């Protein structure tokens, strides 16, 4: 059949129009992307640009930011694109206000974090000193929640202001967590929230991003939710909360009631579903409750297999396929309240077998057997199980000689002491403290605990038993701290007199973190207004960060405000929404530069100080406040 030229041209045009319409319809409908442009015209996602370094996409209004969030969520930003927030004509900074009454509703209710656990943001954003105001972030179905969700490898985000953002981080227990990644806590698929970003990977750059009066709202929290730094929920570079990071860096406590509960809950689980320890024995053989209701951590008749809470790995099979830490398993299955992490943490504190825990008398009883304790050797794996009848403390190195404080409550017959491993200059022991079979002679070889029951004493590195680096598998390798900077100093605490003695509780408080530990945060801060930065080229970061941890069915709203009164600048934290009758919430504040802070709980001032560390614990008995 012969086709006339005119008809041929019309047919080609019709096909072009049909293809364009189909492509647009697929993009708009299949991806559920709400846009304002209809018909056959090209959708304009940004003001101009092609996304290259020399010709970046220009973001000048709320729709462009919304486009960036949606396109990234769709997986259409999987290569490095460049963006600049600016006026498309002049290149000057802009102010984007999400409270503009002319904006579509979805910009207020459906704005998701930029980048997520499936498609991290990997682009380059030059903020150009622009201001983004009143944005409300919908964190639904996202793991990493903030204005940015997950900022990926080699991404760059810099140079803009967030004014009065509200970050809604309300995970539901029914939400799918498929594909979630670990945040380094016991609940590996937990949610992470920050004002600026939920999670920033180590190789990413985040700098010169400042927030004004931001809020995190976790008002309906049905799953574990935390923030390590407030401004940022998590980073891959710094220690997790299990590592003694910000959320655990200031105090934790070991009580006989908690150890007794640990044993009790472990045996309950073993009765329902048999679980096995490392030797292939059922857990009931190493954890037991005697006729007096006392808990013991080991059965000495089984090859002297002494165990510790932190090293006890278990499996549902005696072949030990993928064994897990018993503590983590109890948390995951709900036998142990994860909020006990501040009272016990398997990378901070340990109890070695041979101790009898009396829940009624509120004591932990230690028998004495120091003659077989071996000195730690460089490059060997530190094995806590070798030092039975002791409490072992792992304290993260801070670069200072005094790492924290310790207070113990014990009976009149007790002599709680440090067992030595290093001399004051951190060299391995020699001479009279060291004998050929590498074991300690008697109690005279022990460092004394300088003070009786209830006395507060420093945690000094000269009393450390060993200095260690953590291996990829979680084990601790003994190192020479004069050559290698340790991750932890290990302290071994035991009773030195010849009789069985009892301890009620031991309370530890770290020296607050140093500014070096927050180096990954670069120049990000809470400020009062943009002129504080724009008119002050020598602005000094406040080095003031907070962290929190929420368990299931807890609520927390945190608003942060930098203000000025007659005494000068003050940083105010407003905490609301919690229910003291049912919640156990951690809130920790690191104040490296000793700024003046105020903390309000339900609009009541509860803290006003310049201390380097402040911790709040909300529980059924009220609020516990500690400072250092």
Verbal overview:
This protein is mainly β and 628 residues long. It has 4 domains: 1-43; 57-249 and 515-627, no CATH class; 255-361, no CATH class; 364-511, no CATH class. Helix content is 11%, strand content 32%. It is built from 6 helices and 39 strands. The strands form 7 sheets. Strands 15, 16, 17, 21, 22, 24, 26 and 30 form an 8-stranded antiparallel beta sheet that branches. Helix 2 links the parallel strand 1 (57-59) and strand 2 (82-85). The chain is elongated. Mean pLDDT is 80; it is low at 1-43 and 423-445.
SSE arrangement:
Layout: H1 5-30, E1 57-59, H2 62-73, E2 82-85, E3 95-97, H3 106-109, E4 124-133, E5 136-138, E6 144-145, E7 148-151, E8 156-163, E9 166-168, E10 191-193, E11 197-200, E12 205-212, E13 215-221, E14 225-227, E15 251-255, H4 256-272, E16 288-289, E17 295-296, E18 313-314, E19 324-325, H5 326-332, E20 349-351, E21 355-358, E22 363-366, E23 391-396, E24 402-410, E25 416-419, E26 456-460, E27 466-470, E28 476-478, E29 488-495, E30 501-510, E31 524-527, H6 531-534, E32 544-550, E33 554-565, E34 568-576, E35 585-591, E36 597-601, E37 604-609, E38 613-619, E39 622-627
Parallel strand pairs: 1-2, 2-4, 3-4, 4-8, 5-9, 6-10, 7-11, 8-12, 9-13, 10-14, 12-31, 34-36
Antiparallel strand pairs: 13-33, 14-32, 15-30, 16-17, 17-21, 18-19, 20-23, 21-22, 22-30, 23-29, 24-26, 24-30, 25-29, 27-28, 27-29, 32-35, 33-34, 35-38, 36-37, 38-39
């Amino acid at each position: 059949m012969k086709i006339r030229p005119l008809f041929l041209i019309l047919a080609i045009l019709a096909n072009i129009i049909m293809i364009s319409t189909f492509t647009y319809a697929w993009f708009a409908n299949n991806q559920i992307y709400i846009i304002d442009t209809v018909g056959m015209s090209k959708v304009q996602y940004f003001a101009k640009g092609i996304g290259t370094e020399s010709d970046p996409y220009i973001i000048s209004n709320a729709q462009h930011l919304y486009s960036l969030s949606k396109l990234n969520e769709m997986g259409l930003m999987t290569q490095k694109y460049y963006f600049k927030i600016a006026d498309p004509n002049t290149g000057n900074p802009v102010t984007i206000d999400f409270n503009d009454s002319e904006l579509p509703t979805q910009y207020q209710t459906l704005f998701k974090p930029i980048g997520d656990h499936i498609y991290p943001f990997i682009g380059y954003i030059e903020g150009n000193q622009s201001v983004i105001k009143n944005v409300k972030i919908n964190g639904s179905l996202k793991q990493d929640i903030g204005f940015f969700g997950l900022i990926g490898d080699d991404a760059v985000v810099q140079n803009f202001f967030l004014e009065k953002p509200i970050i809604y981080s309300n995970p539901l227990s029914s939400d799918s967590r498929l594909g979630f990644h670990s945040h380094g806590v016991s609940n590996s698929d937990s949610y992470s929230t920050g004002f600026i970003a939920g999670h920033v990977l180590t190789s990413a750059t985040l700098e010169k991003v400042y927030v004004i009066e931001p809020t995190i709202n976790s008002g309906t929290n049905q799953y574990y939710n935390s923030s390590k730094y407030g401004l940022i929920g998590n980073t891959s570079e710094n220690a997790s909360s299990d590592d003694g990071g910000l959320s655990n860096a200031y105090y934790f406590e070991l009580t006989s009631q908690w150890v007794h509960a640990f044993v009790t809950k472990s045996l309950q689980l073993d009765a329902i579903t048999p679980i096995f320890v490392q030797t292939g024995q059922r857990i009931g053989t190493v954890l037991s409750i005697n006729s007096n209701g006392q808990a013991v951590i080991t059965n000495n008749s089984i090859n002297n297999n002494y165990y510790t809470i932190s090293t006890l790995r278990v499996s549902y099979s005696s072949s030990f396929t993928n064994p897990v830490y018993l503590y983590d398993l109890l948390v995951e299955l709900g036998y142990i309240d994860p909020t006990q992490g501040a009272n016990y943490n398997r990378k901070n504190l340990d109890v070695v077998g041979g101790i009898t825990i009396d829940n009624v008398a509120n004591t932990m009883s230690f028998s004495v057997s120091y003659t077989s304790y071996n000195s730690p050797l460089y490059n060997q794996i530190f094995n806590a199980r070798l030092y039975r009848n002791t409490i072992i403390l792992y304290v993260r190195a801070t670069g200072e000689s005094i790492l924290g404080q310790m207070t113990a409550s014990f009976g009149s017959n007790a002599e709680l002491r440090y067992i030595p491993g290093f001399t004051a200059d951190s060299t391995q022991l020699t001479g009279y403290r060291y004998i050929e079979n590498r074991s300690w002679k008697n109690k005279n070889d022990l460092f004394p605990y300088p003070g009786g029951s209830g006395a507060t004493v420093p945690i000094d590195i000269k009393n450390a038993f060993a200095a260690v680096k953590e291996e990829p598998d979680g084990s601790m390798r003994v190192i020479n701290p004069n050559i290698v900077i340790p991750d932890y100093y290990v302290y071994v605490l035991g009773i030195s007199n010849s009789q069985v003695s009892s301890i009620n509780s031991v309370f530890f408080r770290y020296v607050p973190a140093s500014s070096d530990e927050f180096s990954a945060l670069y120049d990000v801060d809470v400020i009062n207004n943009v002129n504080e930065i724009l008119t002050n080229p020598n602005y000094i970061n406040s080095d003031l960060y907070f962290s929190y941890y929420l368990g299931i069915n807890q609520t927390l709203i945190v608003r942060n405000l930098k203000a000025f009164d007659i005494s000068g600048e003050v940083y105010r934290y407003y905490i609301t929404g919690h229910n003291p009758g049912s919640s156990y919430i951690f809130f920790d504040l690191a104040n490296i530069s000793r700024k003046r802070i105020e903390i309000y709980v339900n609009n009541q001032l509860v803290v006003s100080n310049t201390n380097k560390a402040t911790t709040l614990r909300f529980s059924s008995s009220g609020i516990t406040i500690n400072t250092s």
